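Support request, please re-run this one:
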Amino acid sequence: MLNALHPQPQDKILQLIQMYKDDPRDTKIDLGVGVYKDATGLTPVMRAVKAAERQLWEVENTKTYTGLAGDPAYAEAMQDLLLDGTVPADRLSAVATPGGTGAIRQALELIRLATPEATVWLSNPTWPNHPSIIKYLGMRMAEYRYFDTESRGVDFDGLLADLAAVKPGDVVLLHGCCHNPTGANLTLPQWKAVADLLEKTGAIPFIDIAYQGFGDGLEEDAAGLRLMAKRMPEMLIAASCSKNFGIYRERTGILIAVSPKAEMRATVQGNLAFLNRQNYSFPPDHGARLVTMILNDPALREDWQAELEEVRLNMLSLREQLATELRRLSGSDRFGFLAQHRGMFSRLGATPEQVEALRRDHGIYMVGDSRMNIAGLNARTVPILAKAIIGVGV
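Re-run finished. Output below.
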């Protein structure tokens, strides 16, 4: 059996991580891996998470399984964080998942179970795991234009033109905020226009929101999601707590399904639980329990939101510093988009050859499509990166 297996292509980001580790240069800069780092290069444990873990250590008296869907209190807390009452609770079904990736996988499994003929529409570009999982599941897939390589903003006319071809029952995957890999986001009027189009065509929105609080703020980053939830009869939401709670290794995610009618909730919830059972049975609980404790404790929640705001403002400051330094070096505003993008990532617009030159000549590591993690920078490395970008002719 095993001799029939063929080598699988290496994950480009994991390959980049290894190349960075093997590089002996003290001046190297890692802008590839998608985790938040502080000015010292550390991904810190948030204060509220540490406090919740201390409390949990004192009161937890069992390690037995939770239900197939996870702790209901976690689902309620996350529904409130994401939707804030936009949709009546009796239309919501949810399951805890191993990270946001687990939520995406289970959402796609649900789509395939319910409407195997549906086409899933992805932005071009999108997070590589989206098309990878869809292809593995053997589902239909199509792309809609998203990123304008000239302006480094959203190609909204192209987006609307492509999505005009969606059919009833098709699924349109949208990034809730902080688009990965580009950093270019839809405005609220644009979200409204997309909702108008999906209402007209009968397509179903599937929102992947992995960075709530990293862009313009917790409430602002959920505005498009809430607008869509208020307008659309049904919707899928895959959310991750890895970034905004800093609990990457705890693998804490959730899949929420919005049903057209309350009478459908039990059936949808049963199917979500069934899919969990087929995949991993009971979802991990530790991270979900910490998130629940933080969101339900006013003092912990206040401290978490304050630290999350520090993280957000730090990334905005780095963006502005980089854009300013590039303006000084280039004598133009062509890099102004870096200050306008939101979240950890921006697509620089460099060619693969220029990205290779940045790595080879300057020890600067970013993904081949020139996606760079702004959070990998600090005040010392911003001028180094700016000089290298100009030096390779971007």
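Residues 298-330 form the longest helix (33 residues). The chain has a mean pLDDT of 96.
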